[in-house]
Amino acid sequence: MRNDIERVLIDEAVIEKRLDAMAGAIERDFPQGTLVVIILLKGALVFAADLLRRIARPIEIECLNVASYHGGTQSSGTVDFLDRQFPEVRGRHVLLLDDILDTGRTLHAVIARLHAEGAAAVHTGVLLAKDKARAAAVSADYVGFEIGDEFVVGYGLDYLGKYRNLPYVGVLKAAVVGAGEAGA
Ligand code: 5GP
Ligand code: MG
User: Fold this and answer.
1) Which atom belonging to ligand 1 lies closest to the Cα atom of 79?
2) Longest CA–CA separation in the chain, Å
3) What is the pLDDT of residues 7-18, one digit of tens each?
4) Hey, which of 102, 108, 147 would you mutate to test ligand 1's pocket, going by the most ligand atoms within 8 Å of its Cβ?
5) Is 157 in the pocket of ligand 1 (CB under 6 A)?
6) 122-137: string of b/e by CB count within 10 Å (b at 16+)?
7) Would you say residue 91 lies in a domain?
8) pLDDT tens per residue across span 102-131
Protein backbone atom coordinates (compact mmCIF):
# COMPACT_ATOMS: atom_id res chain seq x y z
CA MET A 1 0.00 0.00 0.00
CA ARG A 2 2.82 2.37 0.90
CA ASN A 3 4.13 2.05 -2.65
CA ASP A 4 0.89 3.49 -3.99
CA ILE A 5 1.30 6.72 -2.02
CA GLU A 6 2.79 9.71 -3.77
CA ARG A 7 3.11 11.87 -0.66
CA VAL A 8 2.23 11.73 3.01
CA LEU A 9 0.14 14.79 3.80
CA ILE A 10 -0.36 14.35 7.55
CA ASP A 11 1.67 11.81 9.47
CA GLU A 12 0.54 9.74 12.42
CA ALA A 13 2.30 11.74 15.14
CA VAL A 14 0.76 14.98 13.91
CA ILE A 15 -2.71 13.43 13.78
CA GLU A 16 -2.36 12.07 17.32
CA LYS A 17 -1.33 15.42 18.70
CA ARG A 18 -4.25 17.11 17.00
CA LEU A 19 -6.70 14.52 18.34
CA ASP A 20 -5.52 15.28 21.90
CA ALA A 21 -6.48 18.92 21.36
CA MET A 22 -9.81 18.10 19.71
CA ALA A 23 -10.78 15.72 22.51
CA GLY A 24 -9.94 18.39 25.07
CA ALA A 25 -12.08 20.96 23.27
CA ILE A 26 -15.02 18.55 23.03
CA GLU A 27 -14.81 17.73 26.74
CA ARG A 28 -14.81 21.41 27.61
CA ASP A 29 -17.66 22.35 25.28
CA PHE A 30 -20.16 19.58 25.88
CA PRO A 31 -22.57 19.63 28.79
CA GLN A 32 -21.73 17.14 31.55
CA GLY A 33 -23.23 13.71 31.22
CA THR A 34 -23.25 11.07 28.55
CA LEU A 35 -22.06 12.12 25.14
CA VAL A 36 -24.00 10.67 22.21
CA VAL A 37 -21.68 10.18 19.27
CA ILE A 38 -22.80 9.30 15.77
CA ILE A 39 -20.13 7.89 13.49
CA LEU A 40 -20.60 7.99 9.74
CA LEU A 41 -19.41 4.70 8.31
CA LYS A 42 -17.06 3.69 7.06
CA GLY A 43 -14.77 6.66 6.62
CA ALA A 44 -14.98 8.08 10.15
CA LEU A 45 -14.24 4.76 11.89
CA VAL A 46 -10.53 5.21 12.43
CA PHE A 47 -10.77 8.87 13.35
CA ALA A 48 -13.64 8.22 15.77
CA ALA A 49 -11.92 5.27 17.44
CA ASP A 50 -8.81 7.31 18.14
CA LEU A 51 -10.68 10.49 19.13
CA LEU A 52 -13.21 8.89 21.46
CA ARG A 53 -10.58 7.02 23.46
CA ARG A 54 -9.17 10.40 24.41
CA ILE A 55 -12.46 11.62 25.88
CA ALA A 56 -12.96 10.83 29.58
CA ARG A 57 -16.75 10.85 29.56
CA PRO A 58 -19.46 8.26 29.33
CA ILE A 59 -20.10 7.85 25.61
CA GLU A 60 -22.87 6.18 23.65
CA ILE A 61 -21.86 5.25 20.15
CA GLU A 62 -24.21 5.02 17.20
CA CYS A 63 -23.22 4.41 13.59
CA LEU A 64 -24.90 5.53 10.40
CA ASN A 65 -24.49 4.21 6.89
CA VAL A 66 -25.15 6.80 4.25
CA ALA A 67 -24.54 6.87 0.53
CA SER A 68 -23.95 10.18 -1.13
CA TYR A 69 -24.08 10.63 -4.84
CA HIS A 70 -22.33 13.70 -6.04
CA GLY A 71 -19.96 14.77 -8.75
CA GLY A 72 -19.42 12.75 -11.90
CA THR A 73 -22.51 11.27 -13.44
CA GLN A 74 -24.67 11.17 -10.31
CA SER A 75 -24.96 14.85 -9.53
CA SER A 76 -28.35 14.82 -7.87
CA GLY A 77 -26.71 15.65 -4.55
CA THR A 78 -29.01 13.38 -2.59
CA VAL A 79 -27.91 11.46 0.44
CA ASP A 80 -29.52 8.09 1.15
CA PHE A 81 -29.85 6.65 4.64
CA LEU A 82 -29.15 2.96 4.41
CA ASP A 83 -29.93 1.79 7.94
CA ARG A 84 -33.28 0.26 8.76
CA GLN A 85 -33.46 2.07 12.04
CA PHE A 86 -32.35 5.55 12.89
CA PRO A 87 -30.66 6.05 16.29
CA GLU A 88 -32.83 7.48 19.07
CA VAL A 89 -31.67 11.07 19.43
CA ARG A 90 -34.76 12.89 20.68
CA GLY A 91 -33.82 15.57 23.21
CA ARG A 92 -30.14 14.67 23.11
CA HIS A 93 -26.97 16.59 22.38
CA VAL A 94 -25.28 14.76 19.57
CA LEU A 95 -21.73 14.81 18.27
CA LEU A 96 -21.66 13.76 14.62
CA LEU A 97 -18.31 12.55 13.27
CA ASP A 98 -17.26 12.22 9.65
CA ASP A 99 -13.93 11.71 7.96
CA ILE A 100 -13.90 14.69 5.62
CA LEU A 101 -15.94 17.72 4.74
CA ASP A 102 -15.90 18.08 0.98
CA THR A 103 -19.00 19.42 -0.78
CA GLY A 104 -20.81 19.41 2.56
CA ARG A 105 -23.83 17.52 1.23
CA THR A 106 -23.40 14.53 3.51
CA LEU A 107 -23.10 16.48 6.74
CA HIS A 108 -25.85 18.85 5.69
CA ALA A 109 -28.28 16.00 5.06
CA VAL A 110 -27.39 14.10 8.22
CA ILE A 111 -27.66 17.22 10.39
CA ALA A 112 -31.10 17.95 8.91
CA ARG A 113 -32.21 14.39 9.63
CA LEU A 114 -30.93 14.55 13.22
CA HIS A 115 -32.91 17.74 13.79
CA ALA A 116 -35.97 16.15 12.19
CA GLU A 117 -35.57 13.24 14.62
CA GLY A 118 -35.69 15.68 17.51
CA ALA A 119 -32.04 16.02 18.55
CA ALA A 120 -31.66 18.89 21.04
CA ALA A 121 -28.36 19.98 19.49
CA VAL A 122 -26.06 18.69 16.79
CA HIS A 123 -22.32 19.36 16.85
CA THR A 124 -20.01 18.12 14.16
CA GLY A 125 -16.43 16.96 14.01
CA VAL A 126 -14.34 16.00 11.00
CA LEU A 127 -10.76 14.88 10.67
CA LEU A 128 -10.31 16.86 7.46
CA ALA A 129 -11.97 19.79 5.74
CA LYS A 130 -11.20 20.71 2.17
CA ASP A 131 -10.51 24.34 1.55
CA LYS A 132 -13.17 24.95 -1.12
CA ALA A 133 -16.65 26.34 -1.61
CA ARG A 134 -19.32 23.98 -0.27
CA ALA A 135 -22.36 22.94 -2.31
CA ALA A 136 -24.37 22.80 0.91
CA ALA A 137 -24.14 25.46 3.61
CA VAL A 138 -22.43 23.62 6.44
CA SER A 139 -19.31 23.91 8.54
CA ALA A 140 -17.88 21.63 11.22
CA ASP A 141 -17.47 22.66 14.84
CA TYR A 142 -14.31 20.61 15.25
CA VAL A 143 -11.90 20.30 12.36
CA GLY A 144 -8.68 18.31 12.59
CA PHE A 145 -6.95 19.72 9.55
CA GLU A 146 -7.76 22.00 6.65
CA ILE A 147 -6.38 20.54 3.42
CA GLY A 148 -6.30 21.60 -0.20
CA ASP A 149 -8.87 20.42 -2.71
CA GLU A 150 -7.24 17.10 -3.59
CA PHE A 151 -8.23 13.45 -3.18
CA VAL A 152 -6.70 11.84 -0.10
CA VAL A 153 -6.68 8.36 1.43
CA GLY A 154 -5.70 6.76 4.71
CA TYR A 155 -6.76 7.02 8.32
CA GLY A 156 -10.22 5.77 7.39
CA LEU A 157 -10.49 7.25 3.91
CA ASP A 158 -10.53 4.86 0.99
CA TYR A 159 -10.04 4.60 -2.70
CA LEU A 160 -12.15 1.77 -4.17
CA GLY A 161 -12.38 0.28 -0.69
CA LYS A 162 -8.61 0.26 -0.04
CA TYR A 163 -6.17 2.26 2.09
CA ARG A 164 -8.46 2.88 5.07
CA ASN A 165 -5.97 1.29 7.44
CA LEU A 166 -3.01 3.47 6.49
CA PRO A 167 -2.01 5.24 9.72
CA TYR A 168 -1.53 8.58 7.95
CA VAL A 169 -3.32 10.73 5.38
CA GLY A 170 -1.73 10.71 1.97
CA VAL A 171 -2.16 11.34 -1.72
CA LEU A 172 -2.18 8.47 -4.20
CA LYS A 173 0.12 8.25 -7.18
CA ALA A 174 -1.61 9.32 -10.38
CA ALA A 175 -0.90 5.93 -11.93
CA VAL A 176 -2.80 4.17 -9.14
CA VAL A 177 -5.84 6.42 -9.55
CA GLY A 178 -5.65 6.07 -13.35
CA ALA A 179 -5.54 2.26 -13.14
CA GLY A 180 -8.50 2.22 -10.75
CA GLU A 181 -10.54 4.41 -13.00
CA ALA A 182 -9.78 2.32 -16.06
CA GLY A 183 -10.88 -0.80 -14.18
CA ALA A 184 -13.98 0.76 -12.66
P1 5GP B 1 -19.36 15.58 0.90
O2 5GP B 1 -20.76 15.11 1.05
O3 5GP B 1 -18.90 16.59 1.94
O4 5GP B 1 -19.03 16.01 -0.48
O5 5GP B 1 -18.43 14.33 1.00
C6 5GP B 1 -18.22 13.62 2.11
C7 5GP B 1 -17.80 12.22 1.73
O8 5GP B 1 -17.15 12.12 0.45
C9 5GP B 1 -16.79 11.78 2.74
O10 5GP B 1 -17.42 11.16 3.83
C11 5GP B 1 -15.93 10.83 1.95
O12 5GP B 1 -16.49 9.54 1.99
C13 5GP B 1 -15.99 11.31 0.53
N14 5GP B 1 -14.80 12.10 0.18
C15 5GP B 1 -14.73 13.42 -0.06
N16 5GP B 1 -13.48 13.80 -0.33
C17 5GP B 1 -12.72 12.70 -0.24
C18 5GP B 1 -11.30 12.45 -0.41
O19 5GP B 1 -10.47 13.32 -0.67
N20 5GP B 1 -10.89 11.16 -0.25
C21 5GP B 1 -11.75 10.13 0.05
N22 5GP B 1 -11.22 8.93 0.18
N23 5GP B 1 -13.09 10.34 0.22
C24 5GP B 1 -13.55 11.60 0.07
MG1 MG C 1 -17.35 8.27 2.98
Assistant:
1) 2
2) 51
3) 999 999 999 999
4) 102
5) yes
6) bbbbbbbbbeeebebe
7) yes
8) 999 999 999 999 999 999 999 999 999 999
Confidence of residue 74 (pLDDT cuts 50, 70, 90): very low
Compute, in angstroms, the gap from residue 82 CA to the centroid of ligand 2.
13
User: Rounded to 5 degrees, what are φ and ψ at 37?
Assistant: -115, 130
pTM: 0.94
Is 98 an annotated catalytic residue? no
43 lies in which domain range? 12-152
| Residue 169 CA, ligand 2 centroid: distance in Å | 14
Give 130 Cα–ligand 2 centroid separation in angstroms: 14
State the alpha helices, DSSP H only, in the chain.
12-29, 45-52, 105-116, 174-183
Number of folded domains in the chain? 1
Ligand 1 touching residue 4 (CB < 6 A): no
Instruction: State residue 93's pLDDT score.
Output: 94
Over 90: is that where the pLDDT of 75 sits?
Answer: no
Specify the CATH number for the domain of residue 137: 3.40.50.2020
